[in-house]
Amino acid sequence: MLKHLFKLIWNKKKQNSLLIVEILLSFMVMFAVFAFAVNSYQNYVKPIGIKYEHVWVINYNNTLKTQNSDSLTMFYEGLLRNIKAMPQVVDAGFSSTNVPFSSAHMSGGITVNGKRITYVNQFNVDDNYLNTLGATMLEGRWYNKQDGISKEKVTVINNTLKEKAFGKGSAVGKYFNDYDNKFKIKVIGVVNDIKFDGDYQTVGLSQYNRFDTSAYHWLQRILVKVQPNADAAFESRLYKFMANQMKNSNIEIEHLPNKLVAYNKFTLVPLIILSIVAAFLIINVALGIFGVLWYNINKRRGEIGLRRAIGASGSSVSSQLVSEALILATFSLIIGTFFAVQFPLLNVFDLSAGVYLTAIGFALIFIYFIVLVCSLYPGKQAAAIYPAVALHEE
Amino acid sequence: MISLQNIEKVYRTTNIETLALNNISLDIAKGEFLSVMGPSGCGKSTLLNIMGLLDAPSRGQIKISDQTTDNLNDKQLAKFRNQKLGFIFQSYHLINDLQVLDNVELPLLYRDTTAKERRQLAAEALEKVGLSNRMKHFPTQLSGGQRQRVAIARAIVGRPEIILADEPTGNLDSAMGNEIMEILLQLNQNDGTTIVMVTHDEHMAQKTHRLVRLFDGSQVL
User: Fold this and answer.
1) Mean pLDDT, to the nearest integer, of A128-148?
2) What is the pTM of this model?
3) CA A326 – CA A320 distance, rounded (Å)
4) Domain range holding A293?
5) Which of B54, B75, B110 sits opposite A387 (nearest CB)?
6) Is residue A199 domain-shared with residue A291, that is, in the same domain?
7) I need a labelling partner for B59 at 20 to 30 A (CA). Which of A320, B90, B104, B189 fits?
8) Which residues of chain B have pLDDT under 50?
9) Does A95 map to a domain?
10) Total CB pairs under 8 A between chain A and B
11) How many angstroms separate the CA atoms of A188 and A176, rounded?
């Protein structure tokens, strides 16, 4: 019977081509939605990598008139000492503007054994950064004062960059070059992956560089880890302190938990939009399948009557129509799967093959489910056709 | 072979009640070739549908091959039709998207037969109606007479005991009509198939063993 149905559909491929294309497009859209969703979910279940609950970010701009680096260094080191001396402060440190859950990004590249690795997030940090954010060293160490006077250029990288550059083995003590391949950089530590772009985004490649004193000219963020009991009154005091210390500077204090919530909302917008588009398309396809099957039944009443006369029961007529719809969907899904598997094969968007394969699986199940649901009722209607009447209509 | 007792068929709508068959009793012997005649709307096709278990009578009893059919459910009726009955229609009812051989195979799809067996039986049936050379054609590539011969091959492929033909020559010219009639007569004589044929053609009806005439739902001869 299956061969018979294949033959019947194949011989009617011209009539069915529109529906095949419609199901194919729906599959591709659902594949995109599921790939996005699976990737977001896989990112979501991974640990965020920092203890952000009681971390505040002070935004400021450098309004000091002096261009003397020593004076600047003295001022900012003093400022940080005073902040750290506050009883509600656990730790604090300077950072470049790309603090966690902000839309600021700085990226560069490195060269490992002559091979360039691009899109490496660059973070300019100080010795307190690791402790302030509560990140964990996986191997080696974080920066200390000795690194400021060392002749050798050293760096700390995240685990993802370590695996990309050096594989599964240890990276501490190994070297890579800058992007232009001009100088060597020694890896002194590997820190755990931190989801800087919120819960749903993929962890990128990260390199943490200890800034030198000249960076005080342009650094604009202080990360402050506070005690759990730090309240609005303390926040107000901290604000006033900063405002007094840095006249004419725009001071703003943000809380990392709030920034995370805002950032997550921002990153979910494309998924929501894609889902809405997909939902409309699916409704369209569902109505299309429903309509085509309904039309087919009315057009094929004579054939249905004949099949009933020569030995088909009502249920076998019904299951034939449902099977036809599923076979039609199979034609589309074979073509769709062919295109979908190109994504992991060609490593499009740098997502893991598992994400794509899971998305293909979900999209297949979803489309089959839609087709099944939409064909059940027309199939039932076909089973109710009265053969004696149907055979006399033509 | 077929026994109809006091068959009555009433079609009811909200306002009108139409008596299509009125107290028809008929016994058709095994191997008999019976023709049913009558003016349009007299109930010929309704009678054939009831004999073919495509329609249920409002009253009365049908026995086919000594089996009463009143209590059969949808699946049992379908199986019964598949194994005991073959149908030929005026408008052929071939599936235009399937080749001739696939059309002929259709009744066997609802039986436990292998694809090879189906091919073989369908080829034999087509040979019997003289269409071996048209197996790979589509129905739209055939003449009316050839289409009806395909329909006959489809009716006989399952080797049924009874063939029910509803105006099988109605859409054909006299030469083709005679050809089809010749095939039906041969099936009756050579294979002993019981045939009930509804026709408007007196000339064709004369060739059969017995003629039953209906008028306004009642048997008049």
Assistant:
1) 92
2) 0.77
3) 10
4) 2-45+268-393
5) B54
6) no
7) B90
8) none
9) no
10) 71
11) 12
- Reported as a pLDDT band with limits 50, 70 and 90, residue A253 is very high
pLDDT digits (tens, 9 = 90+) for A212-234: 888 888 889 999 999 999 999 99
Residue pair A376/A322 in contact (Cβ under 8 Å)? The answer is: yes
Q: Is residue B142 part of a domain?
A: yes
Total of domains in chain A = 2
Interface contact B72, partner A, CB < 8 A? no
Q: Give the pLDDT confidence of A337-353 residue by residue, as tens digits.
A: 999 999 999 888 878 89
Provide mean pLDDT across the span A85-111. 93
Domain membership of residue A66 (yes or no) is: no
Q: Classify the C-alpha dihedral B160-B162-B164-B165 as positive or negative.
A: positive
Residue B91, domain member (yes or no): yes
Of A306, A5, A327, A385, nearest in space to B107 by CA: A306
Residue B184 lies in a domain: yes
A16 Cα to chain B: minimum distance (Å) = 12
B210 interfacial to chain A (CB closer than 8 Å): no
B116 Cβ under 8 Å from any chain A Cβ: no
Predicted local confidence at residue A248, as pLDDT: 85
Q: How far is the alpha carbon of B56 from chain A, nearest alpha carbon, in Å?
A: 10
Q: How far is B161 from chain A (nearest CA, A)?
A: 14
Taking only residues 156 to 195 of chain B, the set having a beta carbon closer than 8 angstroms to any beta carbon of chain A reads 158
Token pair for B90: 């005026």
Instruction: Give the pLDDT band (50/70/90) at residue A175.
Output: very high
Q: How many domains does chain B have?
A: 1
Q: Does A306 touch chain B (CB under 8 A)?
A: yes
Length of chain B (residues): 221
User: Is B106 a member of any domain?
Assistant: yes
Confidence at residue A382, expressed as pLDDT on a 0 to 100 scale = 87
Q: Which of B81, B83, B95 sits opposite A309 (nearest CB)?
A: B81
Q: What angle do CA B33, B38, B41 make, to 5 degrees?
A: 125
Residue from A4, A9, A306, A308 whose CB has the most chain B CBs within 10 Å, to mutate: A306
Residues of chain B with C-beta less than 8 angstroms from the C-beta of A308? 54, 78
Strand arrangement of the beta sheet that strand B67-68 belongs to: B17-28, B2-12, B59-64, B67-68
CATH of the domain at B203: 3.40.50.300
pLDDT-derived band of residue A210, with 50, 70 and 90 as boundaries?
very high
Looking at every residue in chain A, the average pLDDT score rounds to 90
A305 part of contact set with chain B, CB < 8 Å: yes
Q: What is the residue-wise DSSP string for A161-215?
A: HHHHHHTTS--TT-EEEETTS-SEEEEEEEEPP--TT-TTSPP-EEEEEE--GGG
Has residue A231 been placed in a domain? no
Closest-CA distance of chain A to residue B204, Å: 22
* pLDDT for A385 beyond 90: no
ipTM: 0.90
- Return the closest-CA partner of residue A333 out of A343, A321, A325: A325
pLDDT of residue A340: 95
